[in-house]
Amino acid sequence: MNNDTRINEGLAHEVVFPAEQDYHGHPNYLKIYFALLFLFGISLVASYIDNFMVMVSIVFLASAMKALLVINYFMHLKWEPLILQIMIYLALFTLTALIVGVYSDIPMVTHDVYRP
What we know:
Elements: H1 3-10, H2 12-16, H3 19-22, H4 29-46, H5 52-74, H6 82-103
Helix pairs in contact: 4-5
């Protein structure tokens, strides 16, 4: 077996799964950046809401949306196989359920925060 045959055998998977078909292009990163900035602004504005539960809910919602943008576009999960997407989203859903489940304990703790 000569050296050329081993190289061709090593590239045999490229015939079945060519790399050109795997390329999905680049998303519009500037558009995603401005969406992340907008959601950050929502989080900042929400901090001025007097109702604590509404404020925290808005901040958590904006944070979850920012996390989904980062996971889908910067970590390229949007172009991964469906089973991997399901596993990741199931883990995120479980984490969210845990946070929502223990969220009711937050108001039970006395806050030592000065409010003018």
